[in-house]
Write a structure and sequence with these properties.
By secondary structure, the chain is mainly beta. It is built from one helix and 23 strands. The chain is elongated and about 80 Å long.
């Protein structure tokens, strides 16, 4: 863990505790947000910082308070203050939305609040599958009671990683009281990293050899394995597992040759057939053209596979050659 991230974490925690309403860092009773008495601050250990993580501080209340029975929005506000969302007797959900990129892995979450007495809160880490989509609880932790500053810690020894299109939400879902609240949280996370392993260029597919299926025709696709290297003169496998199991992506060079008509070639991870971009284009017959790029590999049954898709007018065709120049763990 770098000293920079430790410093940022400590500064964030200090700022968080300084803005907790009704808490005196000297320990003397003061008034809460609605004038109620609040007891002395209790000891708070602060977050235990894990090695190698990044730290993000977020505030509760960013997305408002919702009535759990009716689903109606009671209060909406676009900031980190929660004072206006806590009225005596209100029941609902207050959210903190850490804006972490897809693929980030969360290892620990420390949520901080205050209480003048025995009030506890249900702190929940949720996985929301898209805006307005279903929400599933990843972890639920009951906070300790006060009086004073309270800290709730969730740890994930194996990490929690969300897929593309999903998002984290941290909820305080409980009966709200004017004498207690949760104010913010500190997330410890890491980002996915992929290490490039360069290779001596290796041919893995050549449709000119009968064993690879012949020309691709317009409107068709072909899922190919990129795991084994072949002899470029015979098409016979000469290196098994040139791309090892566990590889997440490959760098490639793809060539089309002996084209008939115009068209373009698209590549998709695994056995996917959705065309999202062109890998290379050609304008007519008798063309040979090449291009390089990166592509994710499939998983499960499609592990170490990609799909070639030829798009063009009826009658278009081309031979396709794929060389691999490296892979990513």
């Amino acid at each position: 863990m770098s000293s920079r991230f430790r410093l940022l974490s400590m500064v964030g925690l200090l700022l968080l505790l300084l803005v907790l309403p009704g808490i005196s860092l000297a320990g003397s009773p003061t008034a809460g947000p609605f004038g109620q008495p609040v007891g002395p601050k209790v000891a708070s250990v602060g977050p235990t910082i894990l090695p190698g993580v990044q730290v993000l501080s977020v505030g509760f209340g960013d997305s408002g308070t919702f009535d759990m029975a009716s689903g109606a929005t009671l209060v909406w506000q676009n900031n980190s203050s929660i004072l206006s969302t806590y009225s005596s007797g209100a029941t609902g959900i207050v959210m903190a939305a850490p804006r972490l990129p897809a693929g980030a892995t969360v290892w620990q979450v420390d949520a901080y609040g205050y209480s003048s007495g025995a009030t506890t809160h249900s702190i929940q880490l949720e996985d929301a599958s898209g805006f307005g989509g279903p929400i599933g609880a990843l972890a639920i932790q009951t906070s300790p009671a006060g009086p004073g500053v309270v800290q709730t810690t969730m740890t994930f020894p194996s990490g929690v990683t969300l897929a593309q299109g999903h998002a984290w939400f941290l909820l305080d879902a409980s009966a709200k009281s004017a004498t207690s609240a949760f104010v913010g949280a500190i997330f410890q996370y890491t980002l996915a990293t992929a290490a490039l392993v360069p290779l001596t260029p290796a041919r893995v597919f050549d449709s000119r050899f009968g064993a690879f299926g012949g020309k691709l025709l317009a409107g068709t696709h072909r899922t190919i394995n990129v795991k084994d290297a072949i002899d470029p003169t015979t098409g016979v496998v000469n290196l098994v597992d040139a791309i090892p199991q566990g590889a997440k992506a490959v760098s490639f060079n793809v060539t089309v040759t002996q084209t008939v008509g115009a068209g373009f070639l698209a590549l998709a991870p695994g056995a996917g057939t959705t065309v999202t971009a062109s890998t290379l284009n050609w304008a007519g017959s008798g063309v040979t053209v090449a291009n390089g790029g990166l592509i994710a590999l499939g998983s499960g049954a499609a592990e170490r596979q990609i799909t070639l898709i030829l798009v063009g007018p009826a009658g278009s065709s081309a031979h396709v050659i794929v060389d691999i120049t490296g892979y990513y763990w």
